[in-house]
Structure prediction request, 272 residues.
Amino acid sequence: MGIQLSSSTKINKKSRHDIKLMRQAGLIVAKVHALMREMAKPGVSTLDLDIAAEALIREEKALPTFKGYHGFPATLCTSINDRVVHGIPCAEDVLKDGDIISVDVGATYQGMVADAALTIPVGKVDEATMRVLQATEEALYASIAQARAGNYLEDVSGAVEDTNLTYNFGLVKEYGGHSVGYKLHEEPFIHNYRTGVRGPMLQAGNTLAIEPMFCMGTDKVITLEDGWTVVTSDGSPSAHFEHTILITEEGDAEILTCLPSGPFRYFPPTKA
Ligand code: MG
Prediction:
């Protein structure tokens, strides 16, 4: 989930114990992603996905972070095709061949939160749409590579923008990442583009949810009447990839929302 927060000059640091719990929360989120990739097939509804995700999270003795958050009614945000973020699962939204679905999920384990999203192709998806998925995931990994102790938050944001420029897709600016851990959304907001403000310096113990969103067409988005679902104004498809990461004592980023066995990337770059 990505929302607007005010920018802050500080990012909180988690203790070793906090990080241990966040690793577990991240592992549960990664298990939900793996289950969603298995389940997201033609004929399955977004409500089916939501029920399965909530059951898995509760079996793992965690809580679905999004459920009840500012009144959000579900465990997952499920955003099909032109829906960018914050789609609400329902029985009427049935996946069909050629769809893409962004699944965003948070898990709270013993009070600590991890948050991550991915966009899943359903059946056979056309190449132009697949390129949006690939570009968005590439932007996520480019920004994670900049999430190092001693770098500034603007370096993380800039890597998303730079990747976007090489593809020339719409870059959603209204939503972005955030610090995460004690709460779902901690300050500061992480823009997916340079603002000219370098922001706080990254330090060991910072935990960030980085989440680029790219659209095939316009970057203009609209919120539907349900007050949640964000769609592209031109109806073009949109992708969303997010990981929760930790800045380690060694200074680099550890992805907390991957399975230890991977896969670490779903859409490795294919361009020459
Ligand atoms: Mg988020």
Summary: The chain has one domain: 16-255. Residues 16-39 form the longest helix (24 residues). The pocket of magnesium ion is lined by residues 1-2, 115, 178, 209, 211, 242 (CB under 6 Å). The domain at 16-255 is CATH 3.90.230.10 (Creatine Amidinohydrolase).
